[in-house]
Amino acid sequence: MAMERLKALSVRQPWIELILSGRKTEELRSTSTAVRGRVYLYASKQRYDESFERELEVQYDLADFDALPRGWIVGTVEIVDCRWDAEEAIWRWPLKNPRRLRTPLLPLTKPQPRFFHPFGKPEDDATFKGT
Fold first, then answer.
1. Tens-place pLDDT, residues 3-53
2. Would you tell me which of 26, 41, 85, 107 could form a disulfide with 118, CB atoms 3.0–4.6 Å apart?
3. Are 8 and 38 in contact (CB under 8 A)?
């Protein structure tokens, strides 16, 4: 499978699972983004404390929180906008058209807390320079 040169967005579980199942349609962040279009979804390895994870497992009816994939690119989604919510004091990034990958992908570069290029930047690859 040829890997697209998309940026990846790092998100913790269970939010990735909820995005991919269509139950989470916005990403809430403390910063804005100019990124639009399809991005990979990277399931961060970072965990919440155990009691909070158990609450999330019950709240979102997740069969096994511990079995959710972490450290992998597990799907894609489109970021379609970025809006400031003054009432909540948060940036809202509306998401559409989530797609789960049949086989998760291991990033070749070091994941970052927000966006990163999991397979290198297009300008680093000669095939993207027309040579």
1. 568 999 999 999 999 999 999 999 999 999 999 999 999 999 999 999 999
2. 107
3. no
CA distance 28 to 39: 16
What count of Cα atoms within 13 Å lies in the side-chain half-sphere of residue 125? 10
**Beta-strand relationship, 72-79 and 83-85:** unpaired
Cis ω on the peptide bond leading into residue 14 (within 30° of 0)? yes
For residue 46, which amino acid is it?
A: Q
pTM, to two decimals? 0.87
Rounded-to-integer distance, Cα 15 and Cα 95, Å: 12
Strand partners, 72: 43
Half-sphere exposure of 106 (CA within 13 A, CB side): 1
Encoded amino acid at 127, one letter: T
Q: Which residue has the higher pLDDT, 74 or 129?
A: 74
